[in-house]
Design a protein that fits this description.
The chain is of the alpha+beta class. The protein folds into two domains: 4-86, no CATH class; 92-269, no CATH class. The protein has eleven helices and eight strands. The chain has helices at residues 4-20, 32-36, 42-46, 52-86, 92-108, 118-126, 129-140, 177-182, 192-199, 206-213, 230-234, and strands spanning 145-151, 156-161, 202-203, 223-226, 237-244, 247-254, 262-264, 266-269. The strands form two sheets. It has a four-stranded antiparallel β-sheet with strand order 1-2-8-3. A four-stranded mixed β-sheet has the order 6-5-4-7. The protein starts with a helix and ends with a strand.
């Protein structure tokens, strides 16, 4: 016959055997010879004794309850894991912080978006949390994104990276994956196109880059890859731009090249 304490030990042992393997054994004091030695002791007086049928019934009930607990805990763990692995939704704290940064930048640079209201932009952002995640990635890598245009046909606000120089967190990258894999040695860690895809943004086109430069002076010490026409890319080249002598220049280079002073700027429609 087993007491409540012994029953709990047995159930826990079954759990541990599942977790640690079958080599884990029940303590010796729980077998029949061990229990007989407890008779007459103070511990024995505190034990509740049941016959074998009752003990078996209690055992099954307790095992069922333990299994239920395991399922609940497992479900909670899976829910938590699925939320965390999503990765493309900001926490409320991150969202509040980012919106504060974007609002301050918006209000400090009204020349970039004359006639627009921050309240309208924020409402659009809050309705598209995936876009907030992309903006967070742009901000995290030094892009300083800001609204530069509004598409009246689609109702979308258009953000560009507006950092004074090419974003620091996106430099020393070649143009795309094909270019990266073509290098035999000294490969960069990433490519501009791959990074942009992972962030959910697009590289600026040459026209968009020139539009950005009408809103201020950018890349006076650095340069930025821009979206390259397919016919140029097929021949192994890629385009990048900068601003020197108060003039915007467009250059070409091998797509596999990378430099510490060259990154890329992106655009995002919200």
């Amino acid at each position: 016959m087993l007491g409540w304490t012994s029953m709990l030990h047995v159930i826990r042992t079954h759990q541990l055997q599942r977790e640690w393997g079958s080599d884990f054994s029940i303590p010796s004091f729980l077998d029949s010879s061990g229990l007989s030695k407890l008779v007459g002791t103070q511990v024995h007086k505190q034990m509740t004794i049941r016959n074998v049928n009752t003990a078996r019934k209690i055992y099954e009930l307790m095992r069922a309850q333990v299994t239920c607990w395991d399922m609940i805990e497992g479900g909670m763990s899976m829910t938590s894991e699925s939320t965390s692995t999503n990765g493309k939704v900001l926490s409320p704290e991150q969202q509040e912080e980012l919106l504060g940064i974007l609002k301050a930048r918006f209000e400090q640079n009204m020349n970039r978006h004359e006639g627009m209201k921050w309240s309208d932009v924020q409402a659009r952002l809050e309705a598209h949390p995936d876009k907030l995640w992309s903006l967070h990635e742009m901000e995290k890598t030094g892009g300083e994104p800001d609204v530069v245009d509004y598409d009246h046909q689609t109702g979308e606000y258009i953000f560009f990276d507006c950092s004074p120089e090419s974003p620091k967190g996106r430099r020393s990258v070649c143009y795309d994956r094909e270019a990266l894999e073509s290098r035999k040695k000294h490969k960069p860690e990433n490519s501009a196109v791959d990074m942009a895809n992972a962030m959910g943004i697009e590289l600026l086109t040459e026209d968009e880059y020139r539009k950005l430069q009408t809103l201020g002076q950018f890349d006076t010490k650095t340069s930025s890859w821009v979206k390259t026409p397919e016919k140029i890319r097929k021949l192994g080249g890629a385009l990048f731009c900068d601003r020197r002598y108060d003039t915007v220049f467009v250059y070409h280079n091998g797509a596999e090249s990378y430099y510490a002073a060259r990154g890329f700027r992106g655009s995002l429609r919200v």
